[in-house]
Amino acid sequence: MAILTLSVHAQSALPETGLTVGVAGDAPFVIHNPQNNSLEGISLTIWENIADKKNWEYQYKYFTTVDEALTALQQGEVDLLAGPISITSERVEKFLFSQPYYQSSLTIASRDENASIWGKIKPFFSMQLLIAVAIFLSLLAIVGLLFWLAERKHSPEQFPADPKRGIANGMWLAIVTMSTTGYGDMAPVSLKGRVVAGCWMIISLIFATSMIAGIASTLTVSSFSSSTITQVEQFPGKKIAASAGSPAIGFIEEHQGQKVLVNNLSQAMERLKDKSVDGVVFDRPQLLFYKNKHKAENIHIPSAEYYKQGYGFAFRADSKLVNDVNLVLLRLAEDQKIEQIMAEYLGDK
């Protein structure tokens, strides 16, 4: 469960034991370096400012997952939790929370197939689209043949006796007629030729509309079958990773995805990388921070945001610390200190 304990002092006015602060979450809110057992991040920097203002003595206790940390808080092993702890109705039934110091949301991460040139042109080589093009060319050849058969004796200068040249000219006339371009370079002169042209005008109107709709449908279906997830409508049948106990689990179930439980963001992204999952649903700032640090991995994060939620410090239901923490949080916000801390880790917005 807990893998390290760090002691920090802020000139205590509390009992000698001080506060035990549980820490859990992902970068940039909690950054844990296992090599030297150091802890830093947005949440901890804000907490340290609060502790300094109140002259509180405390020690950190790190947990690998938020669920473990919440269990430890409920069992009295820690006095409060620091980290990207989402304030949800389910958690508020069991714990007290400070006012939110950051407004977050859920978003989706997936492999960015469109990052390569092939990924961009792949939809145009789908089997359905190739079949549609083959049918179109076959139809043009048939109409071109009919034009040639009807016109070769009446207009040999437009439709030569040579089948290759004559049928090619007939196909050109069919394309010009279908597109209503009307170059005027050739036109049927015989009754049979005009009947063929009239029939083709009517057929081409229906065919062109159906073909355009079919191409649009094929490209849409191709985008949905891509491993790049751009919207929640693509969730059905897809394996989506999320942290156990997080609001993302309900979000995945609501949109009929197959949930895959992980302990943290790093584990989720490893599964995405080795293709054991199709996507990851996680808090947006953590995903953006990860993508910025791992640009070579071609991660796609759409602009859509879901399940707006606040991050706050969590306390036991009988804690007397909440009001003090809220008061200092308000002062830090008024002094723009929290904004400065956010900019330090997330950059200026």
Descriptive report:
Keywords: Glycoprotein, Ion channel, Ion transport, Membrane, Receptor, Transmembrane, Transmembrane helix, Transport. It is a multi-pass membrane protein. It is found in: Membrane. Residues 18-349 form the Solute-binding protein family 3/N-terminal domain. Residues 18-348 form the Ionotropic glutamate receptor C-terminal domain. Strands 1-5-2-6-14-7 form a 6-stranded mixed β-sheet, with helices on both faces. Strands 8, 9, 10, 11, 12 and 13 form a 6-stranded mixed β-sheet that branches. Mean pLDDT is 87; it is low at 9-13. The chain has helices at residues 42-54, 66-74, 89-92, 117-121, 127-151, 163-178, 191-225, 247-254, 265-273, 284-293, 322-334, 337-346; strands at residues 2-8, 19-23, 31-33, 38-40, 58-63, 80-82, 96-97, 102-111, 239-243, 258-262, 279-283, 299-300, 306-311, 314-315. It folds into 3 domains: 2-101 and 312-346, 3-Layer(aba) Sandwich (D-Maltodextrin-Binding Protein, domain 2); 121-225, Helix Hairpins, CATH 1.10.287; 228-306, D-Maltodextrin-Binding Protein, domain 2 (3-Layer(aba) Sandwich). The chain has 349 residues and is α/β, with parallel strands linked by helices. Helices cover 45% and strands 18% of the residues. The chain has 12 helices and 14 strands. Strand 9 (239-243), helix 8 (247-254) and strand 10 (258-262) form a beta-alpha-beta unit.
